[in-house]
Queue: 2 jobs
Job 1
Amino acid sequence: MFPTPSQSKLPVKPIPGDYGLPFFGAIKDRLDYFYNQGRDEFFSTRVKKYQSTVIKTNMPPGPFIAQNPRVIAVLDAISFPILFDTAKVEKFNVLDGTYLPSLSFTGGYRVCAYLDPSEPNHTSLKSYFISVLASKHKDLVPLFKTCLSQMFINIDDEMGSKKKANFNDPSDAMSFNFVFRLFSDKDPSETKLGSDGPAIVDKWVGLQLAPLATLGLPKFLKYFEDLLLHTFPTPFFPVKSDYKKLYEAFYESSSSVLDKAESFGIKRDEACHNLVFIAGFNAYGGMKAWFPTLIKWVGTAGEELHSQLANEIRSVVKEEGGVTFQALEKMSLTKSVVYEALRMEPGVPFQYGKAKEDIVVTSHEAAYEIKKGEMIFGYQPFATKDPKVFDNAEEFVGHRFVGEGEKLLKYVYWSNGRETEDPTVHNKQCPGKEIVVLLSRLLLVELFLRYDTFTVETDALPFGSSVTLTSLIKATSI
Ligand code: HEM
């Protein structure tokens, strides 16, 4: 609960910051954000300048894609959770922030992730998907293990021939294969998608998120890129036939999942466009950014952590007689390492919500009044690396959430909610939350059952990181 001004002992202050001149202020902030400063520096210089973790700023894309780029940014662990309070903030069309991509990308429907929980369709769609996911519970571990085995075979082959192996491509192929098979009981290669699924989804998601991305081109091309990606809404036509192919592949292969939609009062074609979005954008898109990030943090943590993880994983698997739900639950270091990577670099770093009423938000130092209708924006890496909550907040500490450390899990927000809370039809928390944590643990388990240690080289991508495995040492004892 958030204190009202009279309950709060903290002084109510005006929100500092500057939107600049209409139009020009938004362009200046956009250039600072993408090119002159970069994301983290953009926020840290403003926090320093205004001596506040709640500030006014413009957020990209701005003109001519977003009508109103002005936001109140919440940049600490205490103010950030205002975005989870759906009684106070409206989550109508704010998935991508201050703009909504053309609905042609989603078959003309506003899919679940764009809906506010007060809309009846949010309840139908979210309960439908929670029910679908529950019905798939027993398939998760065996299916993901099968997909991982193929991924490691591909990685070993590349490692053998080139002495290093790219992780992103096999991880993307594995994630798409897993998600498609989870919902459709069919391998995508048996459909008209063949092996093109990941490339098609990349293009479709990429066009929707282009206004939020930079390609990292040489500096002298910044105005060109800004004009190309951030100035005009991206059209649907370049991906129209690909989307049709994707939709038809799901439509033809997911009969049992789509049959279920009727009992939730959802039309078959609306259910299928939602299924494509959940499978392609939410699940595959999330995993595409997240799995390489997880491998990056574990890889750079070094050999000592690797040997502790390998010991824990191998001894628990031996004790339990295999990789079971119960075995995964017992791996306290493995669990902590996954949470720590989610804390360091959440797969989806931005959240938005519009104030439904005048509200007071508190940071560590002060209380601020936000007016009804103002857009609140949270940059999650600043909230989950808040030095007033986490010791050595910028450092990856594998054991952070072991034992007493579990108490800090309420400050891990990657799923658009606290790690200690659950997704429901009343909130906007990711219904894949438990699955993502489970699959992340499984990825580490299968990795350290096969290998003793590994090293990585990494590079930033528009969303997530590119990861190359530079050495991979086969397990000496299991
Ligand atoms: C690493 C992978 C994933 C990440 C990082 C992730 C993250 C998130 C986040 C941050 C949100 C909230 C978006 C917002 O409103 O601001 C969200 C929503 C959602 N996610 Fe996930 N997710 C992942 C995987 C999945 C999976 C596997 C599924 C389902 C199979 C899923 C289904 C959804 C759905 C349906 C929503 C919308 C919830 C609502 O409208 O109430 N996600 N996810």
Job 2
Amino acid sequence: MRSSLQRRAPTLLRTISRRSQYEAAIISNAPRPAAAATRPAAVAPQKRWHSSVNADEISHFNALASTWWDPHGSSRALHLMNPLRHDFINTCRSTSLSSSTTVTPEPNSQPTAGQQQQHQAPKLRYLDVGCGGGIFAESAARLPSTHSVTAIDAAPVIIQVARQHASKDPLLAEPTKLRYINTTIENLASTLQSSPEGSKFDVVTLFEVIEHVDQPANFLSHLSNHVKPGGWLVLSTIARTWTSWFTTNFMAEDVLGIVPKGTHDWNKYINDDELRGYFSKFADEQGWDLSSLMVQGVVYVPGLGWKEVQGSEKVGNYFLGVQKKA
Ligand SMILES: C[S@@+](CC[C@H](N)C(=O)[O-])C[C@H]1O[C@@H](n2cnc3c(N)ncnc32)[C@H](O)[C@@H]1O
């Protein structure tokens, strides 16, 4: 009987040979080769041929919805990753705040101008795209420094689960604190047209989503419209390497079972160089400050959870943050 590795190796070799095509698609806004959905999308986009939504991905995630909040269930790896997401956002944002705001004050000392500025800084408006059941969205909404979280996902069943879970926490009951919308990034601008919150956000997050969308460059260009001048786009995804296939497809899905089978399509992984290429190419058009771009590799260590490992962005999972010019 053939092992799973033997069964999947020919597919991997075929997909590696298509690699240059995928790279071109990421940078150029062109659709990924052979990526067009053949079934209707769960959330019908206004123009299907421009949709980032892949119907198979959405039905896969809808099927996982009921166990989303089980810390030992299908989304275990996402629950464990959540604290690192906040750390990374803080790291990104601290580079654009006055350095004095990060200094621990002496007891009884007067606050510095920088600390006063941070204290008085307006609270943050977050947009969490592909929010799933709300692991990050809920945690962000609970922060004292948060004004509001708008969280969107293309999977309708997941959005129901997210709303239901949030309704159990009175802290999140305030209607403006956390709102879930079942929509696509392509339709978000029109959905938010008359929203008092506006359609631009201080922090736009995209955690473990870009490797599930069709036409990632198109997706990012829609997303960029929702980042305020001076705001941050923060994402996490997976590099397309032999090692990531072994760890995220073979080990995590087939052997250890910490991620449900079929969650990841190795072809859709994106390397940090490809994202750097995207942001360089569209820096002027979309207003990205390339000097702010930050990447941090993270590794899942069984029994210990996710750990930051310098350089591992070239191998597997990583965070990327980039700021818009003010
Ligand atoms: C791996 S889950 C990550 C969920 C969440 N960001 C987290 O990390 O906890 C990927 C999510 O992206 C959503 N998704 C996939 N394609 C999407 C698209 N084109 N637009 C919006 N959401 C999408 C899925 O429905 C799913 O909830």
